[in-house]
Queue: 2 jobs
Job 1
Amino acid sequence: MNDWHRIFAQNVLVPPHPQRARQLSKESTAFQCVLKWLEGPLIKQGILEVLSQVECHLRVSFFDVTYRHFFGRTWKSTVKPTKQLSRQLSRIVFNEPLYFHTSLNHPNIVAVVEVVTEGKKQDGTLQTLSCGFGILRIFSNKPESPTCASQDKRLRLYHGTPRALLHPLLQDPVEQNRHMTLIENCSLQYSLKPHPALEPAFPLLPENLLMSGLQQVPGLLPAPGDTGDALRKPRLQKSVTWYLDDLFFTLYPSLEKFEEELLELLVSDHFREGGGVLDSGALEILERRLHVGVHNGLGFVQRPQVVVLVPEMDVALTRSASFSRKVGSSSKTSSGNQALVLRSRLRLPEMVKHPAFAIVFQLEYVFNSPSGVDGNATSATSLSSLACMHTVRWAAWNPSLGAGPGRVTLPLQGGIQLNPFHRLVYKVPSASMSSEEVKQVESGTVQFQFSLSSEEHQDIPTEHASSTGAERRPSRKPPTSPSSPPAPALQGLAATQDSPVGPGLSLSQLAASSQSPAQRRSARPTLQQPGGSRPSPAQAQELPLEGRISHLEADLSQTSSVLETSIEQLQELPFTPLHAPIVVGTQTRSSASQISRASMVLLQSSGFPEILDANNQPAEAVNPTDPVKFNPQKEESDCLQSNEIVLQFLAFSRAAQDYRGTPWPKTVYFTFQFYRFPPVTTPRLQLVKLDTAGKTGSGPLSHVLVPINKDGAFDAGSPGFQLKYMVDPRFLKPGEQRWFLRYLAAQTLQLDVWDGDSLLLIGSAAVQMKHLLRQGRPAVQVSHELEVVATEYEQDMVVVSGDVSRLGSVRPIGVHTVVKGWLHLTLANVGHSCEQRVRKSSALPPSRSRVISNDGAGRFCGGSLLMSGGPRPARVVQAQKLADVDSELAAVLLSRPPGSAGPRSAGREADAVRRRKLERMRAVRLQEAGAECSGGRRTSVLAQQSIRAQHLRDLQVIDAYRERTKAESIASVLSLAITTHHTLYATLGTAEFFEFALKNPHNTQHTVTIEIDNPELSVVLDSREWRYLKDAAGLLTPVEEDMFRLQGSLSPQLYLRPREVIHIPFKYQSFSMGQLAQAQASAELHSEEGTDAGSTWKSSTMPTKHAKVVFRASRGKPLAVLCLTVEPQPHVVDQVFRFCHPELTFLKKAIRLPPWRTLPGAPMGMPADDPPVHVRCSDPNVICETQNVGPGEPRDVFLKVASGPSPEIKDFFVIIYMDHWLAVPVQTWQVYLHSLKRVDVSCVTGQLTRLSLVLRGMQTVRKVRAFTSHPWELKTDPSGVFVLAPHGVQDLHIGLRPWRAGSRFMRLNLVDVDYHQLVASWLVCLSCRQPLISKAFEITLAAGEGKGAHKRITYTNPYPARRTFHLHSDHPDLLHFKEDSFQVGGGETHTIGLQFAPGQRAGEEEILIYINDHEDKNEETFCVKVIYQ
């Protein structure tokens, strides 16, 4: 039995009740039902004592309550053990998805869930028992609306079995019947919701068939990843068009005798049923029809095509001689045994290369007879009850997957066995047949020639991909009126013009034929037109009716015309990423472990500074493995409100598995960002080897960290590097302490470890900070041993699956993580009392109130019109000269002559004031000189007259200037009376919400226009957003609907009544960072000093922003002015990504979000459905978006970034939101893109590949050195320090010998060794393949502390001359050679000595031995499989 027969026999469906089937057909609706868990005591203790190995499973069946009829097929879940079923609080978890679709949209169509236990009796036989059942209502009481509730529900269970539903006493509603008894404390947790994603798979799934998502459906691709649920988002397999030619049926002993005996039996049946005696010529064969369709074992993919067969002799008489010879040559029977021939080609576009797909044939005869017993004919309208069809034979061909064009002969089948058409079939020949000739022959054969199409469709995961998908799409066109004309011939139903025209039967004459369930199910899809267009509305009406055969009335003698096709818009496919996503948390997450006692002793003896509390007592040590109970009230009520956070970098140890001889870095430095402090880059720290290395469980504690002085020396006597952060009320904003405590409790601190010499990233580590919560203690400290993990991204590949890492998250293909070492780190929190418990009101920060009022802005304090500082609150003001106050007036006064004075530029105003003062000083000196010299008295008088004239001119200028600027100055000073100043403290991406209480001071109404000069500040126009922000802020002010009037892009307007006060909502939200990136430079923190608390409320790295809002009444008069001062604050960074990419190209990456419930900061109390995910980016030139791929699907954030020239580093922030209004981010990522020069290399593993890079000198002489990220595979020449001449050109030679096949990246840095600056950087894009393995060996060794083994292999020189060969291995730690190179004569054999090191653990390892020639080109490769036991 092949796959098709097995699947077909296992999936036979019971049809719905005939009365239900006669109802008007509706659109089929798809559902997903997840049976989650079963809880409660379901089995009595007595059953457990009788049965052994008791297991439990669920069964689900469809039931029609109205007609008390089970239909469909009973589905059975996986079997679960039931060891704890008798307990009161037992639970059995299934979590199995169930899918189906049905058009029986009625409240009485339910699903019955039965709980069945099975166990073995004492004699070993299997016993099954029903423990109860439940009734799952699929549709609501409204007939047209299926249930849409997707939240979890509980299904109550009843005593007994579902067979009780067949009892006539159980009337609807069944659940309220007195004969139904509930099982106490027992229920089934489930969820049921519509599943529109299943619609593309409707042609592959019969209606009313229950299928688990874990079951394989023929024609669907397997589910990506490890979920196995192929029906959650079904993807159709690639379809292939098959053609069938030269098809003919052979019936034994001959066609004439077969049909003669068939007519005799029909006449006999008619007489036996009491229909009277018919004449021999009364019953006629009107048509011989063939149904051909593609069946996937579950049902027909499309409605079977219907064509007309004709006897072979009729073809010879009506067609040319060439066709007669063609048919005659294909037939192997004599002229007396003629066949039924199809003269056209059959096209099957829905065929799929799958072992369960088969082509099914059904041979059907159409008969007609008079209605009366006397044989007289009646009118055509009365003949409708006598037009009947009988199926006489059927066959199924299940082609092999690699089948090519050829000829096929199949035996015909008949009788009472099951068939895909679910019809009664004429019996096969038997010994009781009257004819002696029929007894000796079979039931007939069908022969045809098949071929594949030359053009195959592309892979279509949905119904929108191609024309085949269009055929599989359900028809959505409405039916037309009954008066529509008959439809033209469809290719799927009609034969071509070569087929003969049948007798003149109308559609009503053939309407009496019963519809088969398979054809009723497949009546919904739309068939393809001969020209590729869709059916007309008339055809859409005729298609769902099975018995109405339009091809009988079609004009088949004419060529099929192509219908008019309209230009349709392309439909977008559901988004499926074509590259491997990067999962959040897997690339930088490292595990932290407790430091061993031996390591603690070694660290204590190394002389690290001790952490003391405020009383100079050692801080309390906390075990990092102990759980932390976070009590916010206890933290906030602590008397020590100042928190001094201390970070001590103690030691850095090498990973034990780093065996390739990688040079250990001599110096390291760290980069990180704590809370909202500026990012920190620590100084370079020297790695000093300990004299006595202590062994830990993970690796040796070998090197301590020592700071390096400016002269390059270091003092090993003072190891460790310490940083301190003072977080006190002076630093924290009002109400921020709770956020800081939440940050410590939930967030992790991410540290990047860099090589101080090569400037290459060694790896990243992450440490949880929850142990820094003091919980009332004076000081706490915790020591961690952190894994430093390096993440290596391979080149983009078309993969979307991955394996499961040990941390439980999905690690995609193409991302490799390696543990580089262990960082020993101590974190501490020392509590301090506040210096000033109560501050004066003037020292307090500006108000953090969400409601801003302008009541205090209505008073005018007076002041000068020319004072730019505005009115002063002081009562006594010292008089000043106008020229000294107004620079513009000073420039006017200096100009000569006054009448021709023109406007001066703003840059010369200060010079004008200075020159005027110099002239006054010169005049004073002239006056003093005139008083001393009697001879100069006349000169003094002239000077005084000149000064007096100058003063008169100045007074005239001042008077004219004051008159000109008086109106503007008065308006400016008066505007200060209606101006309100407010300060906002904003973080990146967070919406700062506030309301401005606008008051109308007049007794008349106004239409107020709101003008804003900053695009980051906006008015909240949507009342839903306003209400959401108010709820988040805890405001109780009223919300008004339709408050604002908008006119295109103009400013919003609102209506204000006399003396009315109204609250206007504003939102400030910034996605740009400004000059924050400059803070990435070296931090201004010292090892023994804390942060400067004097500049608590203003950060020099984040520039202050300003925004102004003017509320203007009619005619442009301002009612109020709001001046905002925005102080940006550093934000929290949850994740850091670093990508190296070739310069001047686009980086395209997908970053996969973890389940939203596990995200730190995710909102609690959300509904059962996944919340919406929105993403924003701080760089407007970065394309950042997320796609909604359906409920339950993982979310990916897609980035597209243009890299700059090398060695540019571009950094930006990605902000993730899970609320519709983008109010508060739940995640903030920082992305670094390192632009490097690209070098493409294609090579072979184990073989040396050489290439050169051109180095160009800088402005001055530099001492440089080349460093590589993979020094055991990539080597440079020169390998040490060399001089790079200014403006010179020099070659850097590279030798590449990779040990692992695949595509990956390597880094190459050229560093100035004196100033530790990056001169140049390259990204080596490696594409490596494995050589051909010529020999394979296998060896078994003992694992553990063994001595290894010595083995020998031989190698024969294939060349006639003497050659030198070199030996290499991809596992130098496991295999050593006796000699790394050898010489052997031509044709001679050399013995290679191998020394295998013992394995550390049991397992298998494949070691490759590369034999290279004198140029290091690979000659041969041996593979040795080592089994460690």
Job 2
Amino acid sequence: MLPQHLKQIRVLMLNDKECLERTLFRLEQGFELQFRLGPSLQGRRVMVRTNYPLEGKEFERNNFRVLGWSYPTGREDDSDKFCSLDLKIAGSYQYYFGYGDTEQSGGGYIVVDPVLHVGANNDILPLDCITIQTYLSKCLGHLDDWPDRLRVAKESGYNMIHFTPLQTLGESRSCYSLADQLSFNPEFSPAGQSYSWEDVGVLVEMLKKEWSMLCITDVVYNHTAANSEWIREHPECGYNLVNSPHLRPAWVLDRALWHLTTRVAEGRYEAKGLPADITNESHLNAIRSVLWQDVYPQIKLWEFYQVKVDVAVEQFRTLLLNGTKPDHSKTEGKKGLKIIQDPNYRRYGSTVDMDSALETFVPHSSSPEHVEECCGWLRQRVDQLNEEQHHIVHQHQEQAANCIVGNVVYEHLAENGPKLGPVCRKNPLVTRYFTFPYPDMTLDQELQMLDQPDKTCHFLAHNGWVMSDDPLRNFADSSSNVYLRRELVCWGDSVKLRYGNGPEDCPYLWAHMQKYTEITATYFHGVRLDNCHSTPLHVAEFMMDVARTACPNLYVVAELFTGSEELDNVFVTKLGITSLIREAMSAGDSHEEGRLVYRYGGEPVGACVQPSLRPLMPSIAHAMFLDVTHDNECPIQLRSALDSLPSSAMVSMACCATGSTRGYDELVPHQISVVKEERFYPKWNPSAPPSSTGEVGLQTGIIAGKLALNKLHQELASQGFIQVFVDQVNADIVAVTRHCPSTHQSVVAVCRTAFWNPKTHQYDTDVPPMFIPGKIEEVVLEARTVERHAGSYKKDDNYINGMPEYTVEIKEHISLEESAVVKKAGVISKGASEFVQEITFQKLTPGSVIAFRLMSRLTLADLNILLFRCDSEEQEDGGGCYSIPGWESLKYAGLQGLMSVLADIRPNNDLGHPLCGNLRQGDWLIDFVSNRLINREGPLAQVGEWLGAMFDYLKHIPRYLIPCYFDAILVSTYTTALDATHKLMSSFIQNGSSFVRYLALGSVQMCGVGRFPALPPLSTKLEGVPYRISPVTGEKEQCCVSLAAGLPHFSSGIFRCWGRDTFIALRGLMLLTGRHIEARNIILAFAGTLRHGLIPNLLGEGRCARYNCRDAVWWWLQCIQDYATHVPQGHEILRCPVTRMYPTDDCEPRTPGEMEQPLYDVIHEALQRHLQGISFRERNAGSKIDMNMRDEGFNVATNVDPATGFVTGGNRFNCGTWMDKMGESERARNKGMPATPRDGAAVEIVGLSKSAVRWVVELHAEGLFPYDGVKVHRDGKEVFISYSQWNQQLQQSFEAGFWVSGNPEDPNEEHPDLVHKKGIYKDSYGASSPWCDYQLRPNFTIAMVVAPELFTVERAWMALDVAEKKLLGPLGMKTLDPEDMVYCGIYDNALDNDNYNLAKGFNYHQGPEWLWPVGYFLRAKLYFAKQLGDDTYAKTVTLVKNVLSRHYTHLERSPWKGLPELTNENGQYCPFSCETQAWSLATVLEVLYDL
């Protein structure tokens, strides 16, 4: 389940009387759909119903349920209540809503896309990654040969195969005329074998698992082969003359036309100017004459629609004579007469309604002459009505004549037609519309069969299609005259199926087709709905529901010819069609083809970044964009062979599914007919010679180019290149750009089309230069279609072969300099702030493609500059934060500085704010934002150029509008930058809550690269170390990211990097965020500065380092352990080379690389030096390095107490832990006196050392650390101390030394008189002022987190309880017990008075509430609560969330977007604190990670 802020939520606003059945709403699985009430429905008791099933229930199309309302505010408020669906199942679903007595006052459909999986690991195949190739199944040969033939698709880079139907074919051999929908075509089995659907299933599964290819096949619901056995047994499944008697006149005409064919073929109409070989216009006129003079008069079609006059008059006369009165309930007193069509369509079978006749023709009296007069009127009116019917049939016959002649023109005369030659029985004048399964006889004999139902039930209507018809209309039903008017483009091999309104109307057909569907969906991953627009919707709906039961993530494609997007949507929404087939061949020129690429693929470049919760917008159907479909004309015949590659490239650059048909890539120069083709496809052979007809390889046709294009297509889709721009460079050249908004990368493909054959068409040799904005990183591919000497094309008898005379010259992933297509590339400036590369071409010949990759991705270090950087960081580069006259400077020079201010302006539309005034008055701020970035290298400069281009538009609009548009541009850029930031981080951040992501921004805020390298150089043997040309020296130098301690005070120069701060913050800000290489570099850089066995406190680039802290080395060791634990293969850091700056304590800094050793040696040295004992005097001791410290304070000593194993050290004149305030006031006489020396064994150092020693023991046991202990000199002897022994000693000594029981009899208690809080752990052990040991401070919680094994659970819980009650503040932890006599919770570093405990901020760690210890306190609570059981843990989680909610609120409101170093007592703001501190952010993030 995704966290709420990451979950994609779409909101559909319901409006009264809004029916959206023809609107397409596409959603993905995992999305939440919320229905909310629009204004017209608020205040009504609305009920929303849907057929989307409850979890675990089967989908039933007609089973609707009511959705419950959610009230986010807890109140019944119509403005924000919603009901929702968690979409987890693919398919088409309906919703509707109503209120009061109206059950339906609006509604519509939603379509949920399937999720497709490929490969052994079931990787997701996004829909836009699909590249499909169609195969005519009958050309694959025996099933055993399929892998060799299908391998062509795999090696050409396709990931989906479309098979035409695999069932037994009808006698026409058309791929789509199936004799038996249930049987696997026996042709696919060699002699002695009988393959089945199960064998196909095995092959399909192999393709999916081993080749990562999916398979789909057609389903044909509309018709069956005319020779299907089952239709003979079940003629009710088709439209015959018994169940569809309205077709009788059309059948009579059809038979008459067949007899006309036989007579024309025999030459019997030559005398009338109609020979068998029809070649000119006069022959067409002769056809018309014959129809009107011979055919129509003979068959008298009008009689099927007319009334027998005498019969009607006689019936009327009888009624009049009997005095019958009209039935007024039927006539409603209305006069008038019309024909009632005979439902059985017999000649003169129609009647008139006698009630209407009696109502209309009323005699003056019952006298015979008045009755006869009335009968005369009736006769006159019926004659008139018959004449009207004759006229209507005449119109039908005119249309029939037009259609017959049109058909003859196409089949016999048209240049693009089949030119069938003389009329004969095989090639009749027109295709027969009905089956006639009987021997030849005369037309009169055939017409007598009309009265024999056992015969006429076998006269079945063929299927076909009707030009410009309404696809939702059934052209074979009684309301249609398509068959009579000969408007059907008929498939004479297939019978149209008659489903009726449901399974009860034709049980056998529905059951047969259901089984067919189940077989298909069981063995294939998707279906293509053949002839979808003519398939009855209710049938296709039913069958797709059946298919999805067998295959829930069924991929459904269809080609619709409705001519209307709205009509397309009817099919897409009701059937849940995933992709609609679109074709590049439909374009008449390159301009139109480019428009199709733009239409079907992706968002426009520069589209707004959308939030995860947004309105549900109508969409166009997802496209499957093919360079050519398998049933259309060959592009080589219509265009030229050279166009195959560039048109394919344009298709591949579309942001949708793409594909082709087998033969296109091999340059087969003719259409591969779905009816007539019987040859086999060639097999794959990587070394096939160009002239081979039975095998193909990468040298064949454009296969090598298609492979590169398919790879590029899949890469662009999978990497988020969702934006598309199409530029028509000139008549033949189209440039398609795909852009990734999160990484700012673009790929531009320049395609030179060849719609006309260069041998007959003069192409311009002058190719205009192109101007490509941004820096070209590489040429992804360049390919040219070139001629070669491999013989010319000759159609092979056995294999579907292509043109050997063309191939593709291709290069991939080359530099611009290596390109053969580009002549030269120069950078030019276009306008004030847009940098552009001018590309001049030398070999962009027709049939060529070149694709460039632009702009490298922004790194997190780049994003630090783009988003943040406080004033002192910017000043280092010679700049600063923007200052608004009469107001203040922005907190950051990056976007966050502005976003923080705009966030306050936006809600109240505070356009009077000084920032808005500044924007209205001039372009200074606008130019500052873009120029600051343009002046930098690489991707940042390009972002600056893009912003500059955007801002240029601003400069031309009225000044009063500039603030709102400036805000819009910045919001778009900022959200894109945040998106890019999170994508570069770990899954914990990417999938985390908004709080987690806010905190993770602290990593970008604090981690950056300044003008001067903050870290000492790393070993040149390491990989992943970034380099740059120094902006100062011009020499190559390392530019590793360093971690600032806090902003704004500790952000630049030598005060940026501190050992202790870095390693307290590193786990949270770098390891948990996934910045592993940068974290490694920092660990190794500090390792190189180890001296005296210590890591420096102030790093000072290593050369100015101060080794005056006892804890930094232990935090460093803890980070190495965390790195090894968190990072995959993290233990490898132990073998990384460390270049030592100070291999001996007293040496001068060594040059990088002079002395290197693996990290495990440096770790071992640090531990060995502590066990031996460390004692030295700081270099340059005195006011030069510390103007406040007394002389004794410069003496540094630390060692391991042999009696306890505790790391102990320091003296009362220095402060070696994080509580390091040195007195500064001469007036109060505290100068040179540490407020909190914490000498002895500080509790957190004991915990950190225990953690480190335990870890090296474990590493040694696993063979990852070569040392099991150290040798030290004691009393003149060399002694070996094992790490295991030290570890055990710490375990045994800790609680004895640190637990304050409060029991005066406690044997471990040395100073019972100093105890003033019991049930706590001491802050130190063995301090020079013993009462300091007993002060309640939060430091023991650190030891609890890093070495929980030292604590007994009950005691730990008791101590944590005391800390919670006494020390926990709103944001931070009090640094001292408020009941301590020196406690003061307000820090004022500027105050100088006589108070020893306060002057010059002496109480820095004597009460003010520091944030970072809260992280350790909460993590310790969580750890020990878990040991105490579920109930305690649940309560603790509540506490933790409660505490952290205050941090979240602060973070949201802070203009610095950070957490401060400290607050004054009870969470009050402290002006002397850093506004955002690395370790504050890091430790809170660690709590959320533990949660």
